[in-house]
Structure formats: C-alpha cells, structure tokens
Amino acid sequence: MTAGLIEVRDVGKTFGSVIALREVSTVVNAGQVTCVLGDNGAGKSTLIKILAGAHQHDTGEFLVDGAPVRFNSPRDALERGIATVYQDLAVVPLMSVWRNFFLGSEPKVGWGPFTMVDRRKAKELTRASLAELGIDLRDVEQPVGTLSGGERQCVAIARAVHFGARVLILDEPTAALGVKQAGVVLRYVAQARDRGLGVVLITHNPHHAYPVGDRFLLLKRGRSLGCFDKADITLAELTRQMAGGAELEALEHELRAVGAVDGG
C-alpha cells in the first residue's frame, strides 16, 4: 500500500494541563482533499500547527512519505513541500500582486553588486502561475488590497503551488467570504487537488467541505469523532455530526417533554 503524503497516527498535544488534541489520526493523499471540521475549540488550529511545523506533537506519530518526522519550525515543513495558507494570508495590501506573489524570492537579473529584481520575469511568472489555476487577473501591478477576499485566497494558493508545495493546508479559506466568493475559492481548491496536490481544508462549514472533500476528519474538544471517506458519509450525516446530532435530539426531546407538561 502506498504511503500518504502526510499522516498522523494517534497524535496528541497538551499545553500545561490543557489537552488540545488527543489520539487524532488521518491521512492526506496526493490528488485528494482531506477536510478537518469542527467548531471553535475543537483542536483544528493545533492540528494544522503541528502539520505546518509551528508546534511539535507530544504523543503519537507524524509521518511524511511514510517516515516519522518532528519539525522544528515551519521552514522544515516548507522544505518537505508542506505549505500553509492562514486566514490572514500573510500579504502586504499596498504591494502589487506580483510583489506579494514572490515576497523575498524574486527572480534576479545581473551579477554581484549590479543584481536587481527582474520585474518583467516576475510579472510573467505570476501571470502564468495564476493562469495555470484558471485565475485571470486584470493587472498583476494592482495592489493586493484591491482584490476581493476570494481573489486574495486564490493568489495565496497559486503562490504555494508555484513554490513547489506537495501538500497545501488551507486554514478556513471561506470563513469570511460570501457564497459566490466561497465558490470561487473552492473551485481553485479542486483544481489544486486535480494537479496532484494533497490538500488539507480546515473549515467549520460542512456545506463548503462536502463538494470538494474526499475524506472528513471531525474534531470536538480535541478528540476525533471519526475520519470518514466520502463514500461512507452523506452531507446530511456530516452536518448532523458537526451540529452535535445526539445533543440536539436530546434537547428536542426535552423541550417536547416540557411543552407537554406545560400544555397539560
């Protein structure tokens, strides 16, 4: 059996006496989207920080290409092809799209003290990389701050792909977007998957996760409620699990009982 690009097995993390994660397992395969779902405090942020190299796990195993790893920094994760796009996107709003696209890794021309940024090449590479994901921007000279939230997310995704990401971790990319812009971002997530990347999509919205997801990890208070392949769970069941179906059913039963007493 081929090893996944990345895999966690019974991973746990504590901060003092607080258990942030306990015995969480999932796998991310090439050409698939693994969705991590849960409400605030579910442990999603802790999990992605472990995958991104910002935290180290305390228990369990973290594997890349089947081999155990322990990253010391996000740079270690990047060197292994794991790129993370956080909600704040790490962009400079007043700088142009192409400047943000390279941001410290600009192509250069010249030699020695006469080295300078190759602006023409940088713009061409930016346009080409965006076009490969189907992103057609009017002008790569325009400030990133003038783009919509969905367009900024797409630029960040294209940037990660251009710089060699094999695994793309997206932290709530549709959280602050309207329906149309969320649809745009999800389309580019699907395109990244179709290019052979392994994608980790962090979200609290099952209606955004289900159309593009191949696998669904549900977290609640740091624990896994299960990891399901798409063939094994419907959108309705995913939504019910996310909403705490058992708790809602118990509450509904309790309210009916109270109503019956009051009515009596």
TrEMBL record:
A Pfam family per the record: ABC_tran
Name used for this protein in its record: Sugar ABC transporter ATP-binding protein
Coiled coil feature spans: none
Entry keyword ATP-binding: yes
UniProt KW keywords: ATP-binding, Nucleotide-binding
Entry GO MF terms: ATP binding; ATP hydrolysis activity
Xref: SMART domains: AAA
InterPro entries linked to this entry: AAA+_ATPase, ABC_carbohydrate_import_ATPase, ABC_transporter-like_ATP-bd, ABC_transporter-like_CS, P-loop_NTPase
TM region(s), chain numbering: none
Domain ABC transporter: start-end pairs: 6-246
